[in-house]
Amino acid sequence: MNKIDELLENINYSHFTYRIEKLKAVPESESPVLKGRPLRTLSHDEVQSLERQGNVCHDWSRIRVVEDFSAAFITQNLFIGDVVLGYFDGRMICNQESAGSLPSGIHRSTIESSHIASGSAVHNCPRIFATLVVRDSLLSNSSTGLTAGSRGTLYGNGVNIPVGIETGGREISLYSDLSLELAEYVLMHPGSAAVEDAYGTHLSEYLERIRFNWTIIDKHSRILDCRSIVNSYIGPYSRVLGADEISNSSIFSTSSDPSVVTNSSIIRNSILQDGVEVSDASIIQNSMLFEHSHAEHHGKIVDSIIGPNSGVSKGEITSCFLGPFVGFHHQSLLIAAFWPGGRGNVGYGANVGSNHTSRMPDQECWPGEGMFFGLSCAVKYPANFRKAPYSIVAAGVTTLPQKLEYPFSLINEPVGYFLEVPPGFNNLIPAWGLSANLYSLKRNEAKYYKRNKARRNRFDLRVFRPEILEYMRDAVGMLENIRERKTIYLPGDIPGIGKNMLTDENRLKAIEAYRFFLDLVAFREERETILAAGSGSGGAAARNRTGKE
Predict the structure, then answer these.
(1) Domain spans in the chain, listed from the N-terminal domain onward
(2) Residues in domain DUF4954 (predicted)?
């Protein structure tokens, strides 16, 4: 079995597909939101009661209700088309986001071709159209529906986005149960017929399973002051408070990890996993936000995948793939970045995506894991820092297009003036993070372990993992194997240093730092192996001989 088939095989069960297929399987004589309870038409007395309470319907025979239906808490509504109503008893439904509660029932709303489950509250809603409202949900001052004349909705699944190169060439189609590992693998193999065929077949089957003819407001949701929810799935326990628009999208949520969309935010053609927060007029378009990611303070995310525990505040992310724990807390720009390792930071005013060529946006950047882009830096494309994890681009620095292969480096402004150094070259200090910034590395590692809330995705948060140790060994080899010793080294003298200069002093310090930490990790691994062996059968026998456990 090849890798793509293995990754797809691991996705063998989906709560979302199960949920949609269960709703689709309900016969037309019943309601998907009333658990198979028998339905009936309204009696003459019930119609009269509803009309006395200000309700209007052109054809009451198209209204079906549960057997124990009561008209007591249904007032001043307009009913259009085929409508199914559950039982409403006026029980107060708590709205945790504001003072007070609203009673179960339907009041001053327009209900068209929709099903409202028992225990729900619908108040002052201009239009609820082609919507399934599942039990104990609350909708107030909000409109929901389905695009007129549509053959159903895919809830944001199947949207194809360009990641990295904006003009195309590295695309992926999004779907709700996409894993971070699978997304990275597909994006790493653009143009592979085997990958595209396997992924395409899987996706087609998935889309067919979830295509449905309803907008769905799932159980215990709270939808308040939302202008428009169209062709969308709003998961259980979601909080949508004052959102401007949610269209062709899925918002997944659980009681323990509720998702929240607030304050004039807009979500289009997107998928939000559990625990996601979008607030303060942020815009999410053609994107997927993995669990516990966020956007706030007018953040903008377009054509991107945002990994768990990552997010954007105030800035803009376009055509990017971000792994876990990317901090983006200020007015900054990140375009066409393929950053699966994540764990990095984009400082205020950073422009990672400088189009210096004046041509089509056909270049991309590969930041290394844990990379830090300092205040007001500018990174020109193409740029490849994949083998330089935990490196820092200092504040105010402009980097030329390059490929850097030295982990834990600092790219700083040049020191002094050297005739042999071309204009625009910066000063590279390899292993600076190990020799001068180790506290920050270990602090971040501990912080990520503490703050990780991901349940769907798993990742190794250790800084000194085997692949990073391998990058360090490669770096030592390149630094040691020089043809001749110089005061200043340029790209022709040492491979992998990008468009930068490297002093001999910093070369020697880097070799020392890399070797020290490689030896330290090897020592610790050997020590753990010895201790593990000692705790096995041999260790147990030794403890028995001494009479100790």
Answers:
(1) 3-24+154-210, 392-534
(2) 40-455
